Fold Ran guanine nucleotide release factor.
Amino acid sequence: MSIFFISVRESFLEVQRCNCRKFTQSDRHEDSIIHRLNVCSMSEKNLFGGSISCFIPRDFDDVSSFRQVPDHQEVYTNSSTDQCIIVEILQFETAVKDECIARYLFDELANENQCAASERSVCESKVLDASTPPRIGVDSVKSILVGDQYVSKFNEGSNAKNLIKVYLGVIRLPSVTSDILISVSVPIKINPMSSSRECSQHESQNSIEIGSDIFDKVFTSFRILNWGLFGS
């Protein structure tokens, strides 16, 4: 089953025209086409013990099956491309305005990854209309952000930083004092000094358009099935 909502998709088509490299003929070779088809091949995954669900590409692995993951996170990754999907439940940031929350969390993520202010940039950040998917069923504020961060994997140092395209979706739930962060990270340029260098052979599968496809389907398919997850 494939989920597609034009309202969010149109927003990210605008992003792709902003500060993004244009496709070349090499981007269109066979493995890129195959990967685009795999992105469309998604399955619904139950997260946080079945309390939340969303669609995840079938070629992504559940990181908790081979590494410990914090209780407030669900993490999926594609080992061939180093693409990563993270769903997090965070404490509601009362001091941060709705229109600023996506940038706030983008900067928090960058700081955690030792990405300096000069090594990060935002292409677009916007609050979505209430009617735009995902439809949560309670009062909520949804926003999206797309930006770039130069990040080294496993703290490998400044000489091994990769250019990562970061797609963020934030769902604010003031009634349960929670912010939900959905992030998709796609390596756009892999440093030859990085331990991810073997993924560079799959560069055509790490295009901005593919990252947008993945984020769109994950974010718009997000559902809360059990509100007891957030306590009474």
Notes: The chain is about 20% helix and 35% strand. Residues 119 and 150 are 5 Å apart (CA to CA).
